[in-house]
Structures are given as C-alpha cells and as structure tokens.
Specification:
By secondary structure, the chain is an all-beta fold. The protein is built from 1 helix and 39 strands. It is rod-shaped and about 175 Å long.
C-alpha cells in the first residue's frame, strides 16, 4: 500500500511585494520508505521566477521536478533509501536576485507488526526459544524491542549500536523453560521506533501469542466410584485422571491370577455395569502422550465382595476306609472375602463342631466311632452357603464268614420317606425286611457277596445307593459305596414345591457275636421276586 503525501501551497497575482520564498513542508520531514513525497518550493514578490533543485554533496535527486509560474515541486514516488538527504531549492528573480531554502528528508521503515516464532514444540520443563522478528525496519539504531509475558518483561533489547544504512529484518531471541502454568499465557513482542518530530502512528507495533506447551502425562491417578470395595452386582466405574497436553491416550489392563494381563478399551473411563467377584484384581491405567513420547501408570486394587460360593465338601482318600487308616475331610469355598468355614459332625440329633485348619479336618486312625455325616457351612457378612453333607463309612477290619452285618439307614426328607433294601441276583431280586430302617444279615458267607440296592423314596423323588459286599474267606471283607443323585425331573419338582427329596446316611456295623458255620439266614426274611 502506497501512501501519497501531497503538500502544495502557491501564490497567484501581481501584488507588489518583496521577493520571498519558502519550502513546504518546513525544514524537516520524516517519511516511510515506499511512500510518495512531494516537496514544494514557493515564491512571492516575483512575477516569473526560475527554480533549481539539488542535494547536498550533489547526490542524484532521485525524483521528478515540475516548474509552475511561481512555484516548483520535487516528487519522489516511491521514496527509497537514496532519498535520505538534504534538499536545496534555489529561486531566481531577475531584478530581485535569488533566494535559497533547504529541507532535510529523513526516512524510516516500520511496515508491519512483529512476528513471533517458537523454535520447537514447547514441552514443559524442556528448554525452548522464543523468536521475535521485526520485518524491514529502518533505521535500526532507533529500534527498541521488549519480550513480555502476561505484562512482565522477560527480555529487552535496543539496537543503538547498529549502523545499518538499509532496511533489514531484526531478530530478538529469548530462551526459557516453560512450565505447565505457562499454558494459555501470552507472550508479547513490543517493537518501538521512536524518531524525533515523528507525530504519526505507529510509533510502536505489538504482536501477542498464547503459549501452548506440551507436557505430561503427570499426576496420573485412578478414581473409583462408588468405592474400590463394593458388593457383587453393583455398578462400578474407574476413571483415569491425568495432566497432559495434548490429551493422553489411555490403555486399561488388569493383572490376572495366572500372571497374564488382560487389556481393555482405550478410554479414560472403564465401566462395569454389574460387578462380579471375578472382577476383583489389580487394575492398571497407562497414559501415553504421543507428542512428548512420555508415559505414566497408575494402579488400583478392586475388591468385589460376595457371599460364599462353590462350597464343597470332600474326603480323601475315599469315603470308605479301613479302621486305623488316615482320612482328611475338607470344606472349601470360593475365594470371597472373610469367609468363615464351619465343619461339624452329625449323628442323629447330636451335632459336634470340629476344629479345622483352613477348613481341613484329619483323622489319623479311623475308628468306627468316626463314622457319620459331616456337614460344611461357609458364611460371611453377605450370606452363607450350606450346610452340605457327606457320608463317611468306616467298615470294621477283618470281618469273617459267620458274622452278622447290620445296615442302618437314616433319612432327611419332607414328606417322610420309605426305604427298601434289595439283593440283586441274576435271576431275581430279593427284598430284605427292615426294622425302623435297619437291615441285618446274619451268619454271612461267600454267597452273600453281591450288590444291594437301597431305595429311599417319597412322592417327590427318590435316592438310590448301591452297596457292593464281598465276603472273602473268613478273614477279608470290603464294601464299595456308589451314590446316585435323583433325576432332574424330581429335582425340578423339589425346587418348585419346596419339598425335600430323601438324603440318605448309611452306617454299616459288623458283629462278631454270632459265629455259626455255614450259610447265612435272614431273620424273618421275606424273599420276593420283583
């Protein structure tokens, strides 16, 4: 954009005055390089003057002269650095002599606002350089530059010792370590070019730039709502909070019990609508700033509380052992918080609580008195599971032919159950009578070897136990107990009507009181083919 300066003053007429002249503007003018300048040499008191223009030291004029009746102009369009000079105008009047006047033309160049540059992407805590450039400035020795942050001066520089005689771009640099607090604050470059008698704008130019320092991630934490201790079934929300610019990428993971790591979505919020006990564990939030190439991690332990689960009752090595052998009864429950395990022995209405170690109860030398039903109960503040029961059989050691065997069956059911004991032959089944659930085999022989089915039933369902008895010689005896659960059909009925199917406990006693040789006989036996 060219700015045109036209200064004109003339006098017309033949008024009889003394011969005078003037230069317009007066003795000095300051003009910006690239603009247009018109100098006017005007006379009075002379009808037909003549004019001449020259520079001090006879430099080229660098402009165009136009003479009119009583005045002359020198036009410089555009003004260049060569026009920095003193100009002399001489006016001649024949009978009145000559007049001379001079004017000093001073130049400057200050065409645009400063430009702020940053040498690299700002990273909090790492050195950076701010550069302020003032384009095409002249004269440089008048230039003053301030670098400021939020109104506070960071750096000041003047170019008073610069002797450049041409317009140039001047640069001011400042190095500093940005902090996270610098984000959003303004860096301002103020350039001033004060020239005497310069009564026009701009005398200074200003440019500002907001800092945007990259940093982080840092101060990374995980917040948990409602709490990292919560009850199974409740919603759970984990939020990863970090300070980072630009925003960090988030990756969730969880340490599994087997040492592996499970990865989740890349989002700062991890939601679990219905927490399960298996959601317990160590959660890790890893945040990554892809610009600064820095990472940070935060961890939190999540504990999902639940009532006892998967309570089981087992016996090792077997529920059938010989007297004198060691047996361990174990009650275990899923690893839920604060589970209390109770193991107890039940014979009839007599219940005895046993002292266990981690839910285990060991009998070093099993005796007949140790036979019975063992119950397991697991409980915590959220609920309980059990009792579960397990039948333990301990047959006598060294049962011989001719001895009596008593099988006693007790049931727990609603409505009350009936029971039948059958001896299975290849050709027929023999039903043995009972007295209050007790079956007695007298004077056992090898012929008593075989399968015996105990069927306990009510209108809801039934429970069958198969007993294998083998009588070998007069010195060896063993039995094997096989348990069969009722069919699904009966289980469904049981759940629907809340009626219990039979639960059977069997105790087998061997008696050596009767030792009659020969085959056995059943007391009041009733043999029926089924």
């Amino acid at each position: 954009t060219m700015t045109k300066i036209v200064i004109f003053m003339g006098y017309f007429g033949n008024v009889n005055h003394s011969f005078e002249m003037e230069i317009i503007p007066a003795s000095k003018i300051v003009v910006q390089i690239g603009e247009m300048l018109v100098l006017t040499c005007n006379t009075t008191g002379c009808a037909s003057p003549s004019f001449s223009w020259r520079t001090q030291m006879d430099h080229p004029l660098g402009g165009t002269v136009n003479n009119y009746r009583t005045y002359s102009t020198l036009t410089m369009n555009p003004v260049s650095i060569e026009n920095y000079n003193d100009y002399l105008c001489t006016a001649f009047c024949n009978e009145k002599g000559k007049k001379e006047k001079s004017i000093k033309v001073e130049l400057y160049s200050f065409p645009s606002d400063p430009v702020i540059e940053i040498s690299t992407s700002l990273v909090a805590g790492e050195p950076a350089t701010v550069i302020c450039k003032i384009p095409d400035v002249f004269p440089s020795d008048r230039l003053e530059v301030l670098l400021m942050k939020e109104g506070h001066t960071l750096h000041a520089k003047d170019f008073s010792e610069d002797d450049s005689r041409n317009k140039e771009t001047k640069t001011v640099t400042y190095s500093f370590n940005p902090t996270t607090e610098d984000i959003g604050k303004e860096i301002t470059c103020v350039a001033k070019l004060p020239i005497a008698n310069m009564d026009f704008e701009p005398k200074e130019r200003v440019t500002s730039l907001k800092l945007n320092a990259n940093f982080g991630p840092q101060n990374t934490i995980i917040t948990v709502s409602p709490s990292n201790f919560t009850v199974e079934g409740n919603p759970l929300k984990l939020t990863c909070v970090t300070e980072s610019n630009p925003p960090a990428q988030v990756v969730w993971s969880k340490h599994l019990a087997d040492g592996n790591i499970e990865h989740f979505i890349e989002n700062n919020v991890l939601s679990i609508p219905h927490a399960r006990f298996t959601d317990s564990g160590l959660y890790i939030c890893e945040v990554i700033n892809l610009v600064t190439n820095k990472t940070e991690k935060a961890t939190v332990d999540i504990f999902i509380q639940a009532p006892p689960k998967n309570t089981t009752l087992s016996i090792f090595p077997s529920s059938v052992v010989k007297q004198g052998e060691s047996v361990t009864i174990s009650c275990t429950s899923a690893d839920v918080p604060a589970v209390q395990i109770t193991l107890r022995k039940k014979i009839g209405d007599v219940i005895t609580t046993l002292e266990t170690e981690d839910g285990k109860y060991t009998i070093d030398k099993a005796q007949l008195k140790d036979a019975g039903i063992y119950e397991c109960i697991s409980i915590n503040k959220l609920g309980k599971q059990g009792p579960w029961d397990l039948l333990v059989l301990y047959p006598s050691e060294n049962v011989k032919e001719g001895e009596n065997v008593t099988i006693t069956c007790s049931t727990y059911s609603n409505p009350p159950s009936q029971m039948v004991l059958k001896k299975v032959h290849q050709e027929r089944e023999i039903i043995l009578p009972s007295v209050n659930g007790t079956f007695t085999l007298y004077n056992v022989t090898k012929n008593d070897t075989g399968k015996y089915l105990l069927d306990v039933f009510n209108e809801v369902g039934n429970n069958i136990k198969v007993i294998e008895i083998a009588v070998i010689g007069k010195s060896m005896y063993y039995l094997k107990l096989i348990l069969f659960a009722p069919s699904n059909e009966f289980s469904d009925i049981s759940q629907k009507y809340s009626i219990a199917i039979p639960v059977v406990a069997i105790l087998i006693y061997m008696s050596r009181k009767a030792k009659i040789n020969g085959s056995y006989s059943l007391v009041k036996a009733l043999r029926l083919k089924v």
